Amino acid sequence: MVRTGIVTACVRHLMAASFLLALEGTLPVLAQQRGTEEREVVYTCPMDKDVRAQTPGKCPKCGMDLRAASRDPIAPRREGRALPNSREGRIDNLIIPDTSVYDQNGRRLRFYSDLVKGKTVAINFIFTTCTTICPPLTATFRRVQRDLGERVGKDIELISVSVDPVVDIPERLKSWAQKFHAGAGWTFVTGSQAEIDGLLVALGAAVSDKNSHTPMVLIGNDRARFWTRAYGLASPDKLANIIIDVASSRAGEGK
Asked: Is 66 in contact with 57 (CB distance < 8 Å)?
């Protein structure tokens, strides 16, 4: 009986030791799996990080392609729209090229010299065959123009740059402008493919597929050398407030 008890105790100790060894081997695997889960790829909208999905697709708000981003389980989610004020999305050292372009009336212009120099401008990016975000982007600009009143065309200019210049000849842009009741001080821009491609690169709005173009609005005060980005599908009053804020910027505030 004593011998049997000793044997039984030894067996139990061996089983316990084997369990502990197995557990030690399992823990690193579990930790690795947990780390992998925490780094699991999710897909977010480039302009609204609150839009998150487990699979690729399009943003239900703006229609842009969702982009892969590592999951950050402890990152705080910011309330409200991205870039709620002009200082939060500011851009340093932006150089606006003097690209040769055409407006909706067929006039040949220099982008910087004729449209931006010495002014406060808001620039969005559209194309006339777009059926997703371009109509609401343009409608929002129309309401911004209305909210800003007589300032548009004086100290503030609105500019819509086509990301599809081959199709969007001046006549098409003019029809698009009329459709949305664009007033004075709002210029629609097109040009050669090479010129517009270079302009889009300089403005940080270049894309390989026109359907994935950004709903960003680029807002700048050339005199103050202050530039910022805003979400083009934000409420018109929010965009108008950002434009007014940028227009009041003084030299050096963008640095």
From this structure: yes
> Which of 87, 104, 75 lies closest to 182 in space, CA to CA?
104
> Counting Cβ atoms within 10 Å, is residue 1 exposed (0-12), middle (13-18) or buried (19+)?
exposed
Claim to verify: residue 138 and residue 50 sit in the same structural domain: no
**74 and 153 fall within a common domain:** no
48 contacts 231 by C-beta, under 8 angstroms: yes
For residue 175, the enclosing domain spans 90-247
Which residue numbers in the chain have pLDDT < 70? 1-39, 45-49, 58-65, 70-89, 251-255
Nearest to 47 by CA among 34, 30, 59: 59
Rounded to the nearest 10°, the torsion over CA 32, 38, 41, 42 is: 160
Cα dist. 23→11, 27, 28, 30 in Å?
18, 6, 9, 10
Q: Quote the CA–CA distance of 14 and 153 in Å, as a whole number.
A: 87
115-153 residue pLDDT tens? 999 999 999 999 999 999 999 999 999 999 999 999 999
Alpha-carbon gap, residue 18 to 102, rounded angstroms: 79
Q: What per-residue confidence (pLDDT) applies to 39?
A: 57
Are 122 and 144 in contact, with CB atoms under 8 Å apart? yes
Q: Do 60 and 102 sit in the same domain of this protein?
A: no
Which residues does residue 91 pair with via DSSP β-bridges, in sequence order? Answer: 227
DSSP state of 68: E
What is the value of pTM for the model shown?
0.70
Q: If we measure between CA atoms, which residue out of 216, 114, 120, 235 comes closest to residue 163? A: 216
How many domains are there within the chain?
A: 2
Looking at residue 222, its pLDDT comes to 96
